[in-house]
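Q: I have 223 residues here and want to know how they pack in 3D. Can you give me a structure?
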Amino acid sequence: MLQFSPYILSRKFPPVEESDEDGLLAMGGELSPEWLLDAYTHGIFPWPANDLSPMLWWSPDPRGILDFSQIHFSRRLLRTCRSRRFQITFNADFFQVISLCAETHRRDGGVWITPAMIRAYAEFHHAGYAKSVEVWRSGKLVGGTYGVSIGGFFAAESMFHTMTDASKVALYFLVERLKERGFLLLDIQMITPHTEKFGGVEISRNDYLRQLDNALAQDCRFD
């Protein structure tokens, strides 16, 4: 049984209650597996301004999640997922998935998945914590998503598509995999109009940390 808990004092970060009103907790540090593991198990995640500035670490309040009991997909999308139009794999090409996700721009025109982030999460993947879902069409990668898996907790980080519906298909199969394997918490960090359509909700940081503590205590396997 895993023994991580957000209520055990972080070795790398100040208490999340010290975050500012936007959720910014700390600047600097390292994008190493050790730092990333410490962050995610304490309700913290990295989100850089750019590849030249010090890393920014966040713990917003409220926090966005996809509640498994409230997630919903349209009938049209469900038909697409069941049509065998796409082929689905898990952890078959993590590096290509995150690299293509990096081409998705933020609202301000910047790119948050910087080269340093790609290198760090590729290393985190090799350490066994970062996972991917691939969506293929005729042997070509056309959609996917990636995130962080620890115990019964999964933090969805980003997704991409080059064909209509491919990223939504990736999300559907991610959710199905997590439900099938007994995961308890699907973190999406902050709600967007896109995630709200699938049932994304906001909860308080305290509620999030309680759910995280319970999820981290589970012995779930994404693979």
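Q: Anything worth noting?
A: Residues 166-180 form the longest helix (15 residues). The mean pLDDT is 94.
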